[in-house]
Amino acid sequence: MLRAAIVGIGNWGQNLVRSVEGSDTIRFVAGATRTPARAEEFCRRHGIALLGSYEELLKNDVDAVVLTTPHSRHCEEIVAAAKAGKHVFVEKPLGLSLEEAGRAVAACAGSKVTLAVGYNWRFQPALREMKAMLADGRLGKLLHLEGNFCGPSVYRFAREHWRRDPDEAPAGGMTGRGVHVVDAMLYLAGPIDAVSAQSLRLAQDYGTDDTTSMLFRFRGGATGYLGTVVATAETWRLQVFGSKGWVEVGDVEHLTTWQMKVCLINAKDVTRKEQPQTIGFPAGSTERAELERFAGSALARRPIAVPGGDEMHNVAVLDAILKSAKEKSWVKIE
To answer: What's the whole-model pTM score?
Structure first.
Protein backbone atom coordinates (compact mmCIF):
# COMPACT_ATOMS: atom_id res chain seq x y z
CA MET A 1 0.00 0.00 0.00
CA LEU A 2 1.38 3.38 -1.04
CA ARG A 3 0.75 6.05 1.60
CA ALA A 4 0.20 9.28 -0.33
CA ALA A 5 -0.35 12.96 0.42
CA ILE A 6 -2.62 15.19 -1.64
CA VAL A 7 -1.23 18.67 -2.31
CA GLY A 8 -3.88 21.11 -3.50
CA ILE A 9 -7.27 20.06 -2.12
CA GLY A 10 -9.62 21.91 -4.46
CA ASN A 11 -12.24 20.27 -6.65
CA TRP A 12 -9.80 18.15 -8.66
CA GLY A 13 -7.68 17.15 -5.68
CA GLN A 14 -10.81 16.00 -3.88
CA ASN A 15 -11.89 14.06 -6.97
CA LEU A 16 -8.59 12.17 -7.01
CA VAL A 17 -8.93 11.29 -3.33
CA ARG A 18 -12.46 9.97 -3.86
CA SER A 19 -11.43 8.01 -6.96
CA VAL A 20 -9.20 5.62 -4.97
CA GLU A 21 -11.43 5.02 -1.97
CA GLY A 22 -11.22 1.32 -1.10
CA SER A 23 -8.09 0.77 -3.20
CA ASP A 24 -5.67 -1.94 -2.11
CA THR A 25 -2.78 -0.09 -3.76
CA ILE A 26 -2.91 3.57 -2.68
CA ARG A 27 -4.39 5.50 0.24
CA PHE A 28 -4.32 9.23 1.00
CA VAL A 29 -3.24 9.83 4.58
CA ALA A 30 -2.03 13.47 4.60
CA GLY A 31 -2.49 16.70 2.70
CA ALA A 32 -1.63 20.36 2.34
CA THR A 33 -3.38 23.21 0.55
CA ARG A 34 -3.22 27.00 0.19
CA THR A 35 -6.70 27.41 1.73
CA PRO A 36 -6.84 24.89 4.59
CA ALA A 37 -10.11 26.19 6.04
CA ARG A 38 -11.93 25.09 2.89
CA ALA A 39 -10.48 21.58 3.11
CA GLU A 40 -10.81 20.81 6.82
CA GLU A 41 -14.18 19.04 6.65
CA PHE A 42 -13.22 17.04 3.54
CA CYS A 43 -9.97 15.90 5.17
CA ARG A 44 -11.75 14.97 8.39
CA ARG A 45 -14.26 12.80 6.50
CA HIS A 46 -11.52 11.03 4.54
CA GLY A 47 -9.03 10.47 7.35
CA ILE A 48 -6.46 12.88 5.92
CA ALA A 49 -4.09 14.69 8.28
CA LEU A 50 -4.12 18.31 7.09
CA LEU A 51 -0.64 19.78 7.53
CA GLY A 52 0.37 23.42 7.61
CA SER A 53 2.62 23.57 4.56
CA TYR A 54 4.20 21.61 1.73
CA GLU A 55 7.55 21.79 3.52
CA GLU A 56 6.03 20.22 6.63
CA LEU A 57 4.38 17.55 4.52
CA LEU A 58 7.70 16.54 2.94
CA LYS A 59 9.04 15.84 6.45
CA ASN A 60 6.12 13.48 7.05
CA ASP A 61 6.50 9.72 6.61
CA VAL A 62 4.32 9.51 3.48
CA ASP A 63 5.68 7.57 0.50
CA ALA A 64 4.43 9.87 -2.25
CA VAL A 65 2.89 13.23 -3.07
CA VAL A 66 0.09 13.88 -5.55
CA LEU A 67 0.28 17.46 -6.85
CA THR A 68 -2.81 19.33 -8.07
CA THR A 69 -1.26 22.78 -7.75
CA PRO A 70 -0.83 25.78 -10.11
CA HIS A 71 1.26 24.94 -13.17
CA SER A 72 4.13 27.28 -12.34
CA ARG A 73 4.76 25.46 -9.05
CA HIS A 74 5.09 21.97 -10.51
CA CYS A 75 8.82 21.95 -11.21
CA GLU A 76 10.01 23.22 -7.82
CA GLU A 77 7.53 21.02 -5.94
CA ILE A 78 8.66 17.93 -7.89
CA VAL A 79 12.35 18.70 -7.27
CA ALA A 80 11.70 19.24 -3.54
CA ALA A 81 9.76 15.97 -3.28
CA ALA A 82 12.50 14.07 -5.09
CA LYS A 83 15.12 15.45 -2.69
CA ALA A 84 12.93 14.26 0.18
CA GLY A 85 12.75 10.77 -1.35
CA LYS A 86 9.03 10.97 -2.20
CA HIS A 87 7.49 9.52 -5.34
CA VAL A 88 5.53 12.11 -7.34
CA PHE A 89 2.30 12.12 -9.29
CA VAL A 90 1.73 15.55 -10.83
CA GLU A 91 -1.27 16.84 -12.71
CA LYS A 92 -0.58 18.00 -16.24
CA PRO A 93 1.31 19.80 -17.56
CA LEU A 94 4.62 18.47 -16.27
CA GLY A 95 6.06 21.97 -16.71
CA LEU A 96 5.54 25.23 -18.54
CA SER A 97 8.88 24.93 -20.36
CA LEU A 98 11.11 22.12 -21.53
CA GLU A 99 13.86 23.36 -19.18
CA GLU A 100 11.50 23.05 -16.18
CA ALA A 101 10.30 19.62 -17.23
CA GLY A 102 13.87 18.42 -17.74
CA ARG A 103 14.89 19.51 -14.24
CA ALA A 104 11.90 17.75 -12.70
CA VAL A 105 12.48 14.48 -14.56
CA ALA A 106 16.22 14.55 -13.83
CA ALA A 107 15.61 15.15 -10.12
CA CYS A 108 13.33 12.12 -9.84
CA ALA A 109 15.67 9.94 -11.88
CA GLY A 110 18.61 11.03 -9.71
CA SER A 111 16.74 10.22 -6.49
CA LYS A 112 15.39 6.96 -7.95
CA VAL A 113 11.76 7.91 -7.26
CA THR A 114 8.85 7.38 -9.62
CA LEU A 115 7.38 10.37 -11.44
CA ALA A 116 4.02 10.19 -13.22
CA VAL A 117 1.94 12.84 -15.01
CA GLY A 118 -1.88 12.91 -14.95
CA TYR A 119 -2.71 11.99 -18.52
CA ASN A 120 -5.71 9.83 -17.68
CA TRP A 121 -7.01 9.54 -21.26
CA ARG A 122 -4.50 6.73 -21.84
CA PHE A 123 -6.58 4.56 -19.51
CA GLN A 124 -9.71 4.86 -21.65
CA PRO A 125 -10.56 1.49 -23.24
CA ALA A 126 -11.66 3.29 -26.41
CA LEU A 127 -8.30 4.99 -26.88
CA ARG A 128 -6.52 1.67 -26.35
CA GLU A 129 -8.77 0.07 -28.94
CA MET A 130 -7.97 2.87 -31.40
CA LYS A 131 -4.27 2.11 -30.92
CA ALA A 132 -4.91 -1.61 -31.42
CA MET A 133 -6.81 -0.90 -34.67
CA LEU A 134 -3.80 1.02 -35.98
CA ALA A 135 -1.38 -1.69 -34.87
CA ASP A 136 -3.26 -4.63 -36.42
CA GLY A 137 -4.08 -2.85 -39.67
CA ARG A 138 -7.86 -2.57 -39.35
CA LEU A 139 -7.62 1.19 -39.98
CA GLY A 140 -4.89 0.86 -42.58
CA LYS A 141 -2.09 3.40 -42.75
CA LEU A 142 -2.42 6.33 -40.35
CA LEU A 143 -3.06 9.50 -42.35
CA HIS A 144 -4.42 12.22 -40.08
CA LEU A 145 -5.62 12.99 -36.53
CA GLU A 146 -7.80 15.87 -35.43
CA GLY A 147 -9.32 16.93 -32.17
CA ASN A 148 -10.64 19.67 -29.97
CA PHE A 149 -11.20 20.20 -26.26
CA CYS A 150 -13.35 23.22 -25.49
CA GLY A 151 -15.52 24.74 -22.79
CA PRO A 152 -16.46 27.87 -20.82
CA SER A 153 -13.29 28.09 -18.70
CA VAL A 154 -12.88 31.87 -19.04
CA TYR A 155 -16.37 32.33 -17.60
CA ARG A 156 -15.95 29.67 -14.91
CA PHE A 157 -12.98 31.23 -13.11
CA ALA A 158 -12.90 34.71 -11.59
CA ARG A 159 -10.61 37.36 -13.03
CA GLU A 160 -8.11 36.97 -10.16
CA HIS A 161 -8.02 33.14 -10.31
CA TRP A 162 -4.61 31.69 -11.18
CA ARG A 163 -6.09 29.90 -14.19
CA ARG A 164 -6.81 33.30 -15.76
CA ASP A 165 -3.15 34.33 -15.54
CA PRO A 166 -1.46 34.11 -18.99
CA ASP A 167 1.79 33.08 -17.29
CA GLU A 168 0.02 30.10 -15.67
CA ALA A 169 -1.99 29.19 -18.76
CA PRO A 170 -0.03 30.14 -21.89
CA ALA A 171 -1.74 29.46 -25.22
CA GLY A 172 -5.17 29.64 -23.64
CA GLY A 173 -6.75 26.23 -23.13
CA MET A 174 -3.62 24.23 -23.96
CA THR A 175 -2.37 23.70 -20.38
CA GLY A 176 -5.78 22.82 -18.96
CA ARG A 177 -7.27 20.96 -21.91
CA GLY A 178 -5.24 20.74 -25.10
CA VAL A 179 -2.31 18.84 -23.60
CA HIS A 180 -4.68 15.90 -23.04
CA VAL A 181 -5.38 15.73 -26.77
CA VAL A 182 -1.68 16.09 -27.58
CA ASP A 183 -0.91 13.18 -25.24
CA ALA A 184 -3.56 11.03 -26.92
CA MET A 185 -2.09 11.89 -30.31
CA LEU A 186 1.42 10.99 -29.14
CA TYR A 187 0.07 7.68 -27.84
CA LEU A 188 -1.50 6.91 -31.21
CA ALA A 189 0.87 8.50 -33.73
CA GLY A 190 4.23 8.98 -32.03
CA PRO A 191 6.35 12.15 -31.82
CA ILE A 192 5.41 15.43 -33.47
CA ASP A 193 7.99 16.88 -35.86
CA ALA A 194 6.68 20.42 -36.43
CA VAL A 195 3.91 22.79 -35.32
CA SER A 196 2.14 25.83 -36.76
CA ALA A 197 -0.08 27.62 -34.22
CA GLN A 198 -2.18 30.69 -33.59
CA SER A 199 -3.51 31.79 -30.19
CA LEU A 200 -5.84 34.74 -29.65
CA ARG A 201 -7.94 36.44 -26.98
CA LEU A 202 -11.26 37.18 -28.68
CA ALA A 203 -14.05 36.89 -26.10
CA GLN A 204 -12.73 39.16 -23.33
CA ASP A 205 -10.28 42.03 -23.01
CA TYR A 206 -8.28 40.50 -20.13
CA GLY A 207 -6.80 37.21 -18.98
CA THR A 208 -5.67 34.26 -21.02
CA ASP A 209 -6.12 33.59 -24.72
CA ASP A 210 -9.43 31.88 -25.42
CA THR A 211 -9.08 30.65 -29.02
CA THR A 212 -6.06 28.51 -29.90
CA SER A 213 -5.52 26.22 -32.89
CA MET A 214 -2.61 24.42 -34.49
CA LEU A 215 -1.45 22.11 -37.27
CA PHE A 216 0.93 19.20 -36.63
CA ARG A 217 3.30 17.15 -38.76
CA PHE A 218 4.20 13.82 -37.14
CA ARG A 219 7.58 12.17 -37.59
CA GLY A 220 5.81 9.06 -38.83
CA GLY A 221 4.30 11.02 -41.74
CA ALA A 222 0.75 11.71 -40.54
CA THR A 223 -0.76 15.19 -40.18
CA GLY A 224 -2.86 16.60 -37.37
CA TYR A 225 -5.07 19.44 -36.21
CA LEU A 226 -6.01 20.58 -32.69
CA GLY A 227 -8.26 23.39 -31.50
CA THR A 228 -9.07 24.52 -27.99
CA VAL A 229 -11.64 27.27 -27.41
CA VAL A 230 -12.26 28.12 -23.76
CA ALA A 231 -15.03 30.68 -24.26
CA THR A 232 -17.74 28.39 -25.62
CA ALA A 233 -19.93 25.48 -24.56
CA GLU A 234 -18.37 22.23 -23.39
CA THR A 235 -17.29 19.74 -26.06
CA TRP A 236 -14.38 17.48 -26.98
CA ARG A 237 -13.53 15.19 -29.87
CA LEU A 238 -10.70 13.05 -31.27
CA GLN A 239 -10.93 11.48 -34.73
CA VAL A 240 -8.32 9.28 -36.39
CA PHE A 241 -8.25 8.73 -40.14
CA GLY A 242 -6.60 5.70 -41.72
CA SER A 243 -6.44 4.48 -45.31
CA LYS A 244 -9.19 1.94 -44.55
CA GLY A 245 -11.52 4.07 -42.45
CA TRP A 246 -11.88 6.32 -39.42
CA VAL A 247 -12.58 6.05 -35.70
CA GLU A 248 -13.91 8.79 -33.43
CA VAL A 249 -14.52 9.53 -29.77
CA GLY A 250 -16.13 12.64 -28.35
CA ASP A 251 -18.94 14.06 -26.28
CA VAL A 252 -19.66 16.82 -23.78
CA GLU A 253 -18.52 14.92 -20.65
CA HIS A 254 -15.01 13.45 -20.77
CA LEU A 255 -14.70 11.87 -17.30
CA THR A 256 -16.97 8.96 -18.21
CA THR A 257 -16.05 5.76 -20.04
CA TRP A 258 -16.11 6.72 -23.71
CA GLN A 259 -18.04 5.17 -26.55
CA MET A 260 -16.35 4.94 -29.93
CA LYS A 261 -17.62 5.30 -33.51
CA VAL A 262 -16.00 3.26 -36.27
CA CYS A 263 -16.55 3.62 -40.01
CA LEU A 264 -14.62 1.46 -42.50
CA ILE A 265 -14.47 1.55 -46.29
CA ASN A 266 -16.45 -1.23 -47.95
CA ALA A 267 -13.68 -2.94 -49.92
CA LYS A 268 -16.19 -4.52 -52.30
CA ASP A 269 -17.88 -1.22 -53.11
CA VAL A 270 -15.85 1.87 -52.21
CA THR A 271 -18.66 4.15 -53.44
CA ARG A 272 -21.04 2.85 -50.76
CA LYS A 273 -21.45 5.30 -47.85
CA GLU A 274 -21.17 3.06 -44.81
CA GLN A 275 -22.84 4.12 -41.58
CA PRO A 276 -20.56 4.21 -38.50
CA GLN A 277 -20.95 1.62 -35.77
CA THR A 278 -20.96 2.66 -32.11
CA ILE A 279 -18.95 0.50 -29.70
CA GLY A 280 -19.26 0.64 -25.91
CA PHE A 281 -16.82 -0.44 -23.20
CA PRO A 282 -17.13 -1.54 -19.54
CA ALA A 283 -17.35 1.43 -17.19
CA GLY A 284 -14.36 2.35 -15.05
CA SER A 285 -12.49 5.26 -13.48
CA THR A 286 -9.47 6.52 -15.41
CA GLU A 287 -8.37 8.55 -12.37
CA ARG A 288 -8.32 5.42 -10.21
CA ALA A 289 -6.51 3.50 -12.94
CA GLU A 290 -3.76 6.11 -13.34
CA LEU A 291 -3.21 6.47 -9.59
CA GLU A 292 -3.10 2.70 -9.03
CA ARG A 293 -0.63 2.33 -11.92
CA PHE A 294 1.49 5.06 -10.31
CA ALA A 295 1.29 3.37 -6.91
CA GLY A 296 2.25 -0.03 -8.30
CA SER A 297 5.20 1.46 -10.16
CA ALA A 298 6.33 3.44 -7.10
CA LEU A 299 6.17 0.42 -4.83
CA ALA A 300 8.28 -1.53 -7.36
CA ARG A 301 10.49 1.56 -7.98
CA ARG A 302 9.77 1.44 -11.71
CA PRO A 303 10.06 4.74 -13.63
CA ILE A 304 7.16 6.16 -15.64
CA ALA A 305 8.12 9.66 -16.82
CA VAL A 306 11.72 9.49 -18.07
CA PRO A 307 14.11 11.68 -20.07
CA GLY A 308 13.03 11.63 -23.71
CA GLY A 309 9.60 10.18 -22.94
CA ASP A 310 6.16 11.35 -24.07
CA GLU A 311 5.72 13.48 -20.95
CA MET A 312 8.80 15.49 -21.93
CA HIS A 313 7.83 15.59 -25.61
CA ASN A 314 4.42 16.99 -24.69
CA VAL A 315 6.14 19.97 -23.02
CA ALA A 316 8.38 20.36 -26.10
CA VAL A 317 5.20 20.55 -28.20
CA LEU A 318 3.79 23.24 -25.88
CA ASP A 319 7.05 25.19 -26.21
CA ALA A 320 6.79 24.95 -30.00
CA ILE A 321 3.13 26.07 -29.96
CA LEU A 322 4.05 29.19 -27.97
CA LYS A 323 6.97 29.98 -30.26
CA SER A 324 4.95 29.40 -33.42
CA ALA A 325 2.08 31.61 -32.24
CA LYS A 326 4.54 34.38 -31.42
CA GLU A 327 6.62 34.11 -34.60
CA LYS A 328 3.71 33.19 -36.91
CA SER A 329 5.69 30.41 -38.54
CA TRP A 330 6.20 26.65 -38.51
CA VAL A 331 8.43 25.50 -35.64
CA LYS A 332 10.38 22.25 -35.81
CA ILE A 333 10.64 20.19 -32.63
CA GLU A 334 14.13 18.83 -32.08
So the answer is: 0.96
